[in-house]
């Protein structure tokens, strides 16, 4: 499962790079849309108790994106972990409520509350 998720995160990174998506909102749309289009993946991960593994992979993904697209931020690891945790918990909440909140509303909320 870990290898599958690592491959998915690499695909996110490749998609963002290929399409030159530089804004956080565009990057979040790519990320969250994957889970929205593949609802069984996140539900299976949550049911299998793989929350920690997914959160750790997401945090590494976020750290990589921030270094590439926001190199002047110089965020500490704990600041990145904090931001990642918030995004992750919103994703878990979104999955559990069957994606009823619109993607645009979720991305808008994250953009307003993330500390970049």
UniProtKB/TrEMBL annotation:
<dbReference type="Pfam" id="PF14278">
    <property type="entry name" value="TetR_C_8"/>
</dbReference>
<protein>
    <submittedName>
        <fullName>TetR family transcriptional regulator C-terminal domain-containing protein</fullName>
    </submittedName>
</protein>
<dbReference type="InterPro" id="IPR039532">
    <property type="entry name" value="TetR_C_Firmicutes"/>
</dbReference>
<feature type="domain" description="Transcriptional regulator TetR C-terminal Firmicutes type">
    <location>
        <begin position="24"/>
        <end position="113"/>
    </location>
</feature>
């Amino acid at each position: 499962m870990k290898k599958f998720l690592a491959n998915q995160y690499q695909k996110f990174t490749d998609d963002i790079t290929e399409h030159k998506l530089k804004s956080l909102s565009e990057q979040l749309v790519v990320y969250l849309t994957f889970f929205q289009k593949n609802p069984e993946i996140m539900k299976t991960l949550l049911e299998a108790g793989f929350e920690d593994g997914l959160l750790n992979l997401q945090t590494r993904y976020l750290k990589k994106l921030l270094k590439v697209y926001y190199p002047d931020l110089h965020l500490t690891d704990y600041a990145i972990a904090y931001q990642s945790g918030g995004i992750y918990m919103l994703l878990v909440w979104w999955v559990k409520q069957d994606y009823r909140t619109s993607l645009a509303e979720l991305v808008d909320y994250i953009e307003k509350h993330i500390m970049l």
